Amino acid sequence: MSRLIQIKFLSKAILGVALLLSINCTVTQAQQLKYLTGNSSWNPDSLGNHRAVVTVFVAGAVAKTVIDWRRKDDPATKEIIVVDARSNQRILNVKTENLTRETGTIYFEPVSGAGKYYIYYLPFHVQPGSNYPTAVYKKPADRAALAWKNKISGKTIATKVDYLESYNQLNSFYPMEVIATAKEAASLIAKNKNQPYLIFPEDRLHPVKMEKDLPQRWVLKGTTQTFTDTAARGENFSFQLGLYAFSKDLQKVNLKFTDLKSTDGAVIPAALLSCLNTDGINWDNKVLKKQVDVHKGEIQSLWCLLDIPEDAKPATYNGTVTVMAEGTTAVPIQLKIVVSPKKAINGGVNEPWKQTRLTWLNSSLGQKNELIKPYTALKIDGNTISLLGRKMILGNDGMPAQIQSFFTEEMTAIDQQPRPLLAAPFALIAEETDGSVLQWKTGKPEIKQTAPGQVEWTALNTAPKLKMEVKASLEFDGFINYTIKLTALKELKLKDIRMVIPFQKQVAEYMMGLNLKGGKIPADYQWKWDVAHKNQDGAWIGAVNAGLRFSLKDEHYTRPLNTNFYLDKPLLLPGSWGNQDKGGIDIKQNTSNTAVTNYSGAREMKAGDTLYYNFNLMITPFHTLQTEDQWATRYYHKYNNVDTIKATGATVINIHHGTAINPYINYPFIAHEEMKSYIDSAHHLGLKVKIYNTVREVSNSAYELAPLRSLGHEIFSKGKGGGYAWLQEHLNADYIAAWYVPEVKDAAIINSGMSRWHNYYVEGMSWLVQNVGIDGIYLDDVAYDRTTMKRIKRVLTQNGHPGIIDLHSANQYNKRDGFNNSANLYMDHFPYLNRLWFGENFDYENNTPDFYLTEISGIPFGLMGEMLEGGGNPWRGMVYGMTNRMPWSANADPRPIWKVWDSFGLQNSRMIGYWVKNNPVKTTATDVLATVYLKDKKALIAIASWAKEDTKVKLQLNWKALGIDPKKVTLKAPAIRNFQQAGTFAVNDEIPVKKGEGLLLILE
User: I want to staple 356 with a disulfide (CB 3.0 to 4.6 A). Which of 132, 289, 324, 348 is the partner?
Assistant: First the structure.
């Protein structure tokens, strides 16, 4: 797939003229050097992305070429490859000399005589097919024959460098990565030696890309204190100020704008101008102020945004932007913006190569905390707060005194009978070194409803030596955020500060997290912090229909990286809970409860010292199982012809990145017209289409890549660089190389975590819904928080759109991911998901039913899912209502099982899982489990074995609960390809079940 998709709106001929300059920067006409693109006409993975096209005028033994390549890298460490254009064969008789960043001299044997020759000057090699490649640049090697080299001292043949050519436009260095020579830069500085720094106003079509080299373009233009450009009414306009700190460090760089005024009195207020690098709205909707410092010898681009009003009068507007830095003279730049009569559509965001979407970085779209279906408004009754299927009762100290769940064990309905989670209230205990416990004097929490879906409360608790201020909130999905501020009133020596969560013993049935895979909760367990290696700060504990996820934080919490990159940016140890690794968590089953003790260990506090013992809770389940949707919605996880997909019986198509209509990872804006055409065709057939789009990394094809890099590490993570050649050649260093798609040569870099890129992501998703018609997104792991997920759900479901969100995760329980459980890691997002796909590296053969239930199925949280690795285990999957997904896993076609679903009429059936204590169908073996799908006078029984050997079981049937007359019943196993052979059984027969397999039986 050609990357030329990206450039169809750009200049058709990427052609530049680099004029050689004399020392005093006056232009000469000695030579013109052109820059063209090669239209992907050679193999860059062996020859590199850049070449000089040279003409040899006459035949001879030695041709000499001097290339004024003006490079950022060190040419002396790179090999030169010369290819005969006529035969396309490599020439071995090559010798180089004087290879500098500015020029290089190459001698070669023109084997075909007069004609064209290609000189490749950045050749590299990569591991074929790798998705995390490291391009290794070939070192210089002398392959020339000695006899030929002896001819170099003689007469050489004249040549001409016709042009420099890049593999495609994306790889081009022209014009903003073509360096000025050292003499040119020195001359320019000498002319401006009295200035504190140099300012280069630059238009939006030429993003600044070099941090240490002046581009030749700026030397040609020279310094100026005016900027002129043209914009449309209503356009999201932008421009740059390139600051070059040539003489000293610059501290606290800032900009001040004036109103823009026309000669006839029209005004564009200064309030509509801003600097992206210094001001904005952060991902959490808070005002962002950033300090910009520029080190001596470096260049900083300041991106200025101007939101031109739609009703602006067409005219020429003049104003000033003043550049200020601490301890230096302010420098004014005169602005002249010509506003044309043309009116931009939607701010001009349909022309993103003009950087019209930079304003998205400061978006607050979706931030209003409105209710999202199926959640209901919160209700306050005294100290009790009710939400969908759950209640929380506060103690006078502001801590949870009781939490109740009303979900049935089947997880398909909400009951009137509460199930209490706690055996006693939460308790935050401060214990002095002598063993005495501080006694809190409590008041009464102040509770207020700030929105239909949010309740906040505060409480003040005091002891003679310590004050505890509680500030908390509960949201409509069951998320609770606690900020606990402890202030020492007197000097204190403490043995421990700990929080005890006393679970009802019968509720604390399962656990996952804290270095444990999902399964039965241990009777006695101890855990210690290890943030350098483990992405663990809490756990989920509960039963299928009642549970609690808790995680421990402090005021400095930042979201770590995940999915292969945790070790690059791990958790910060909470100063309170972690306490220099003295803290930990103990879990102990007692006679009446299961106590979870979150302790922090001994410490001293001086009067006035503060500590933040913050924590988050999530009350599970979030909602009932949507079984009807599970049976009716069938995924096709591959880009294919829509008629072919329709014929499979699938109803929803997932479009991965690296495909024709979604070629670039997490940047689905380039081939959007092709994507819309495909989606329209799918909609015509009644199919829905979701696309891959997340924010963990971003494609190097993103139009805004240079502006984002100008923000330092706000958007992109610190890193060692490397990766594919494009990244090394254009980003140089200080990034983390991410996923690479060889077929489209798409190279991505890792984002830093939570940032304004999430604002852009939300706006971009809204644009895709409105302009392309996507029906939802396929998430391949999630690199953002629940706030962003709520915003995404809101924009995806706007104006009646379905907004389907489908989460895939590879198993995160490994070294690279910090030994976290995928379900625990992503639980914040579960309230807004439609389906799970857990996933790569999940072992469906050697894990327990409890692992399936807690870590894969999603059932304890109100979700259902599908299997991936090797197609999963189809027999075990069916006891959780799961199949695999077509056509991703080879030899694992779910259609035979789908056919049984349809012939039985699984829709409108009642799913009763094996975990339900009064399940009307059980087996005589504890390691052979049965889930029943019940309809009027018939049932589909899914049986799966975890037994170590082949076995035989009898069914234990509750005929009354089934509503079936045992005297008139038949029990049949329908024939299902690659699953089971047909068979008929008597209800009292011993039924053979193979090890690791199972059966689907129809009882009617």
Answer: 348
Write the single-letter amino acid at 821: N
Helix (H, G, I), strand (E, B) or coil at 397: coil
Q: What is the pLDDT of residues 293-342, one digit of tens each?
A: 999 999 999 999 999 999 999 999 999 999 999 999 999 999 999 999 99
Answer for the pair 944, 925: CB distance below 8 angstroms, yes or no: no
Could you tell me if 675 and 690 are in contact, meaning their C-beta atoms sit under 8 angstroms apart?
no
How open is the CA angle 255-260-265, to the nearest 5 degrees?
155
User: How far is the C-alpha of 586 from the C-alpha of 525, rounded, in Å?
Assistant: 6
Tokens of 29: 């006409």
Tell whether the model's pLDDT for residue 29 goes beyond 60.
no
Neighbouring C-alpha atoms within 13 Å toward the C-beta of 186: 5
Q: What is the 3-state secondary structure (H, E, C) of 898-932?
A: HHHHHHHCCCCCEEECCCCCCCCEEECCCCEEEEE
Cβ distance 241 to 333 under 8 Å? yes
CA nearest neighbour of 695 among 756, 782, 767: 782
The identity of residue 700, as a single letter, is N
Q: Helix (H, G, I), strand (E, B), or coil: what is residue 400?
A: strand
CA distance 517 to 529: 17
> Which pair of tokens denotes residue 349?
């965001």
DSSP sequence for 775-838 = -EEEEES--S-HHHHHHHHHHHTGGG---EEEEEE----STTTTS--HHHHTGGGGGG-SEEEE
| CA torsion angle 110 114 116 117 (round to 10) | 10
One-character DSSP codes across 194-225? TSSSEEEEEETTS----SSS-BHHHHHH---S
The per-residue b/e assignment along 950-961, b for 16 or more CB within 10 angstroms, e otherwise, is: ebebebebeeee
The position carrying tokens 């949707």 is 629
- Residue 425 to residue 923: CA distance in whole angstroms: 39
Predicted pLDDT at 732: 87
Cα separation, 622 vs 646, in Å, equals 33
Closest by CA to 667, choosing from 675, 789, 169, is 675
Dihedral angle sign, alpha carbons of residues 528, 531, 536, 537 = positive
559: phi then psi, degrees, rounded to nearest 5: -70, 125
Q: Would you tell me the crossing angle of helices 757-771 and 672-684 to the nearest 10 degrees?
A: 50
**Residue for token pair 């082949």:** 950
Confidence at 657, pLDDT banded by 50, 70, 90: very high
How high is the pLDDT of residue 890? 78
Distance of alpha carbon 362 from alpha carbon 603, whole angstroms: 42
Closest CA to 634 of 884, 858, 856: 884
C-alpha to C-alpha distance for 72 and 68, rounded to whole angstroms: 12
Which tokens in the block code for residue 99?
């290879």
Cα–Cα distances (Å) from 563 to 572, 714, 809, in that order, read: 17, 20, 9
Contact indicator for 611, 852 with CB cutoff of 8 Å: no
Nearest to 999 by CA among 903, 937, 936, 929: 929
pLDDT for res 15: 39
> 67-125 pLDDT, tens per residue?
999 999 999 999 999 999 999 999 999 999 999 999 999 999 999 999 999 999 999 99
Tell me the one-letter amino acid at 134: T
Give Cα separations from 972 to 10, 140, 290, 931, 939 (angstroms).
65, 73, 69, 16, 11
- Map tokens 């050292």 to a residue: 182
Q: What is the 3 state secondary structure string of 346-378?
A: HHHCCCHHHCCCHHHHHCCCCCCCCCCCCCCCC
